[in-house]
Amino acid sequence: MLPQKRGRIPSRIAMNCCWKVLAIFLLLLPSALSLQPAQSRVLLVSFDGFRWDYIYKVSTPNFHYAMENGVHVKQVTNVFITKTYPNHYTMVTGLYAESHGIVANEMYDPILNETFSLNKMDTHNSRFWEEASPIWVTNQREGHKTGAAMWPGTDVKIHGFFPTHYMPYNESVSFEDRVARLIDWFTSEEPINFGLLYWEQPDEMGHILGPENPLMGPIISDIDQKLGYLMSELKKAKLWGVINVIITSDHGMSQLSSERLIELDQYVNRELYKVIEHSPAVAILPNEGKLDEVYETLANAHPNMTVYKKEQIPDRLHYKHNRKIQPILAVADKGWEIVYNKSDGFQFGNHGYDNILPEMHPIFLAVGPAFRKNATKEVMNATDIYPLLCHLLGINALPNNGSFNAVKDILAEEVPVVFGADTYATIVGVFLGSFLVIVFIAVFVKHFIFTQLNTMQVQHTEAAQPLLQD
Ligand code: AMP
Ligand code: ZN
Ligand code: ZN
Questions:
Q1: Residues 380-393: pLDDT tens digits?
Q2: How confident is the model at residue 435 (pLDDT cuts 50, 70, 90)?
Q3: Residue at 267 is within a domain
Q4: Are residues 369 and 338 in the same domain?
């Protein structure tokens, strides 16, 4: 009897140990699970050319309402060149232009011997887009649905995918119609989790009037009313406060002057080169054998124009390592325009300049359950939008040039550590593995002690026998 009685003690220790490990595991499990990315719905809105400071130029009550209810990031550094297509593709890939391959609005691929042109509406060649995979492709590969209203690139088949719902580009489709389609997609029986909305203004009027023109006031007010309309429609559809809305843009705008023109014809024979992308970051393709001649004549031609051979382009611009970047890049200083000569058409506003310039920076607001309220943040990079979106959608971000850690402080709930999906599996695996190992050790120890006590008992009984006989 004695050995059996004693045997219960190690068994109890073993069971206690198991229960403790199980309790710790259960206690830690929720916090491990809370590290899982969110799976919220997101609407990404771009008002083309909405400079970061437009909200201070005229009364913009709807932008301010969104700011009070969400987060306002004051300076967003977008990517060079600060044009529409490169920056819209950055927002949905997290990559610099040299890495996603949409290096300009106007491009020439010397290997494919093919061109891409926003001006000629010739943007549908998949091969220009497929150096990267935009977020809607990943979203759909992971089983979700996307809806896109005119966002650049969403009417192009990329890696075999269109967005689940999309609208072929047509700038005459009204803002209201675009919003209506998105709301239908968000509220349908098989709803989208991710929507993209693009609107051409205030970019177009910014080019025509110039950003410092007082007539831009009504244009900015109109965008503010459009934002108000979007918010009221989301409220009607019971989506406001439920989905996360990011309101941003691709770039800002700089004021030009007919006094600040750099005329290429004054310095170099037009027969020697082709201009692929236009001012203010001019992509120059010299004729065969004419690279040095064109470069030498332009290099010190004008004090407000910096000319680089492709390999000299500063690393900080992340604008070198792509075959669609042409052999010579001529970049005008802020507010200057590069033209062939004065007979070229003139506009009062332009963008495309160095992305370090605040005038090139866009607005950024984020409103919804995932975001802090009435909060501001000083700076972020446009490349960070992509990992933020992936976190909100609960999908795996592809390798990118952004950083989720750099923007996680705009989220309402603290996100303690950034783990990939693999890491969650690892955490659970380690917990379960440790639990099983401890159970095994406990059973082994129990068994060992039990055997030892049995042996001692036998010896004790044998040793005691003669005394009993006495
Ligand atoms: P940017 O001057 O770089 O800001 O280019 C803006 C212009 O691009 C807008 O005025 C739009 O009309 C035009 N745009 C935007 N998306 C498309 C598209 N999918 N196809 C053709 N043009 C577009
Ligand atoms: Zn634009
Ligand atoms: Zn523009």
A1: 999 999 999 999 99
A2: low
A3: yes
A4: no
Last residue of a domain, which of 322, 346, 370? 346
Q: What's this model's pTM, rounded to 2 decimal places?
A: 0.84
Structure tokens at 126: 């998949």
In the chain, the number of structural domains is 3
Cα of 48 from ligand 2 centre, angstroms:
5
142 plus 221 within the same structural domain: yes
Considering the domain architecture, whether residues 141 and 198 belong to the same structural domain is answered as: yes
Q: Which residues surround ligand 2, an ion (CB under 5 A)?
A: 48-49, 84, 203, 250
Q: Which domain holds residue 431?
A: 423-463
| pLDDT above 60 for 269 | yes
- For residue 290, pLDDT beyond 80: yes
Nearest residue by C-alpha to atom 17 in ligand 1: 152
Question: pLDDT tens digit string along 152-196?
Answer: 999 999 999 999 999 999 999 999 999 999 999 999 999 999 999
Do 206 and 174 fall within a single domain?
yes
List, chain by chain if needed, residues with CB within 6 Å of any ligand 1 atom: 48-49, 83-84, 105, 118, 121, 123, 152, 169, 171, 200, 203-204
The number of the ligand nearest the C-alpha atom of 251 reads: 2
Same domain, 384 and 333: no
- 267 and 250 within one domain: no
Tokens of 293: 């001649």
